[in-house]
């Protein structure tokens, strides 16, 4: 139920749910999973839930109090869930710096009513990708090449998804965006080889095929959502095997 009914406020974008979970699972997989990853994921999930009504409150004056209330509720749950992981791994504090800076960029775009700008998408996707880096660090990883590649692969996948979705809706009929989506999905196949993970090319094959078949074409949001869900599931499943 959304804020319009004065009920619980939750994000309705299915892409957000994929971006909050897939990078985290990728990072956990790259390190050593532990039971308290569940607490860290709860903290990450509720920070995401808190950010949604916070950003919405900047746009909806009449509902601001209701939205901020839910942002505070989610924030308290997130902080409570984060307490134990922070005690176990104080270095997690460092992720708060880029998180806040990138969130400020999102706030700036919301205030300017330009949430659909590609720079705003880039910053939001980078925030979600950092969740994977945090999960990797918490699982015994370090500030190393693996962390960089975990962040990079997550970022590349969801940035491609953002480009593809733009060709379906906001930029449908714009040949420049369609060409950019084609080129992007072809070129990212080179990146895993350059990073020393050639088998990681495989989870990027489906996004390429999806883009070649459907970019720029008329598509119902439901079908686009199903494609996005399937793409995210195959991305994490294949990555889990080959990374």
What can you see in these coordinates?
The chain is mainly α. The protein is 72% helix and 0% strand. The chain has ten helices and no strands. The mean pLDDT is 92.
Describe the secondary structure blueprint for this structure.
Blueprint: H1 14-30, H2 37-57, H3 64-88, H4 96-111, H5 118-138, H6 145-168, H7 175-187, H8 191-195, H9 205-214, H10 221-242
Helix pairs in contact: 1-2, 1-5, 1-6, 1-10, 2-3, 4-5, 5-6, 6-7, 7-9
Summarize the structure.
The protein is mostly helical and 243 residues long.
List the total number of helices.
10
In round numbers, the mean pLDDT is 92
Low-confidence stretches: none
Q: What is the H/E string?
A: HHHHHHHHHH
Shape: globular
Helix residue percentage: over 70%
Largest sheet: none
How large, in whole angstroms, is the Cα Rg? Answer: 18 Å
Number of E-state strands: 0
Q: Report the portion of residues in β strands.
A: under 5%
Structural class: mainly alpha
CA-to-CA gap between the ends?
38 Å
List keywords for this structure.
single chain, 243 residues, mainly alpha, 10 helices
């Amino acid at each position: 139920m959304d804020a319009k009914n004065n009920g619980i406020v939750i994000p309705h974008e299915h892409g957000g749910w994929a971006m909050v979970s897939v990078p985290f699972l990728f990072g956990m997989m790259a390190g050593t999973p532990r039971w308290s990853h569940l607490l860290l994921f709860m903290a990450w999930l509720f920070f995401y839930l808190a950010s949604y009504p916070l950003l919405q409150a900047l746009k909806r004056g009449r509902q601001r109090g209701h939205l901020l209330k839910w942002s505070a509720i989610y924030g308290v749950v997130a902080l409570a869930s984060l307490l134990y992981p922070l005690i176990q791994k104080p270095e997690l504090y460092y992720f708060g710096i880029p998180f806040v800076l990138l969130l400020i960029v999102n706030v700036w775009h919301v205030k300017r009513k330009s949430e659909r700008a590609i720079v705003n998408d880039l910053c939001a996707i980078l925030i979600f990708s950092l969740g994977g880096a945090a999960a990797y660090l918490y699982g015994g990883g370090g500030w190393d090449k693996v962390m960089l590649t975990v962040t990079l692969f997550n970022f590349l996948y969801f940035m491609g998804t953002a480009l593809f979705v733009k060709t379906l809706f906001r930029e449908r009929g714009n040949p420049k965006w369609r060409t950019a989506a084609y080129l992007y999905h072809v070129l990212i196949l080179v990146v895993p080889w350059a990073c020393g993970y050639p088998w990681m090319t495989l989870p990027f094959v489906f996004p390429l095929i999806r883009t070649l078949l459907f970019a720029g074409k008329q598509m119902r949001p439901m079908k686009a959502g199903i494609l996005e869900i399937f793409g995210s599931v195959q991305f994490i499943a294949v990555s889990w095997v080959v990374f």
